[in-house]
Amino acid sequence: MNELQPGLEDHTPVWAIFGDLMSALVGVFVLILVWVLGYQVELTQSLQQEVVRREAEQERRMVLEEALATPLASGRITLRDGRIGISGSVLFALNSDELQPGGRDLLNSLVSPLKLYLGEQNELLMVSGFTDDLPIQQGNLSYSDNWELSAQRALTVTRALIEEGMPPSLVFAAAFGSQQPVVANSDDSSRSQNRRVEMAPVPRAAAEQVPE
């Protein structure tokens, strides 16, 4: 029987251990590579979806701007980020929810183009009321605060649109009070800008999520 020479031990060759280690490293590298490639594919898809969404949004705004070309040209309404803005002074007297004759005429001119646009886009029209930050004057006992006034103004405009031919199923009202001013309430001029009514076409799914 052959005996091991002194100083020699029976152990696994170094090259075998090195091979196992390299195999493990290659496996880890492959897993990382697969994860990176999957992440890049997901990121690319997300970017493409965002591009499509923005292009669709831009197209919607262009269609809306074209539909409202005549009232926009008159300068009596504004269109910003898909929201139609009407100065409160055009529609109502200060601290009042009674629609002025000129305001009703303006709303009447908006019904036909908006009704056509909403039908083509399968959307609803949200009518939102806003006020400035000044409290309701003490002499006005109809409303306790700006929330109630903005709500009533939004309802007044909504009802006027319906009376002028807008289908009730296509329009609803919302109130924001003095929240979400377009400019800081620093003087009479800025406050007059914040006293306004906005109309914005919204997807039906988004409208269904608006709390009553």
Automatic annotation (TrEMBL):
Keyword set, alphabetical order: Membrane, Transmembrane, Transmembrane helix
UniProt xrefs under PROSITE patterns: OMPA_2
Start and end residues of each OmpA-like domain: 79-205
Record-level GO cellular component terms: membrane
Disordered: annotated span: 182-212
Highest rank taxon of the organism: Bacteria
A Pfam family: OmpA
The UniProt record lists the keyword Membrane: yes
Transmembrane segments: 14-37
PANTHER family to which the protein is assigned, alphabetical: LIPOPROTEIN YIAD-RELATED, STATOR ELEMENT OF FLAGELLAR MOTOR COMPLEX
Protein name: OmpA-like domain-containing protein
Native organism: Pseudohalioglobus lutimaris
